[in-house]
């Protein structure tokens, strides 16, 4: 049984999610439905939940500020939020989970299943990444949390050399020679790294433009990266690549 607490200042949101959990997620036992972050903190101390469904925007103390009250986060976190593209991207950058309001049944069931299968709780470094992203810290200094099969990897964005698609997973190659299998599609990784110096040069390849050593001409051609690996360039993306390098 998964012990859960729901924290949301909007009554209809609390009622709706409570009903959905009871109907579609019988493995979840809702211990408390709280209308404020302060009430939520008391409920967490009392019930020691496995997961907290946490509204992002609340008066006096928002969801992010609530999490900052914990030296270590001893539970899973699933943010619930209305559509805010910037906040959502920041949450995804930290590899934390979120549900978009109004919450859909299938997304809720999927999020609960992830809680059951995840081997580790989130760490405060993930929250730090989230808060830095929201604060608009310099892009070059940012870390990204990459969800792996064992949990997640925290890496500096600038240390990512290239990414290669593997169906619903992505191989992320780092400058130190390590390779991380990430539980995200290449499209997901591309969206997360938008605004950094990365370019999709092939349907299977995303590269760090700063790590390109050489371009070899051909029908699409191919790139030689700083680790001496070669990456194919598709015909459809060749022009975009050449335009960047003049």
UniProtKB/TrEMBL annotation:
GO terms for molecular function: DNA binding. Keywords: DNA-binding, Phosphoprotein. Residues 144-246 form the HTH LytTR-type domain. Gene3D superfamilies: 3.40.50.2300, LytTr DNA-binding domain. InterPro entries: CheY-like_superfamily (IPR011006), LytR-like (IPR046947), LytTR_DNA-bd_dom (IPR007492), Sig_transdc_resp-reg_receiver (IPR001789). It holds the Pfam family Response_reg. It comes from the Bacteria. Signal peptide: none annotated. SUPFAM superfamilies: CheY-like. The modification 4-aspartylphosphate is found at residue 55. Residues 3-116 form the Response regulatory domain. PROSITE patterns: HTH_LYTTR (PS50930), RESPONSE_REGULATORY (PS50110). This is LytTR family DNA-binding domain-containing protein. It comes from Nibrella viscosa.
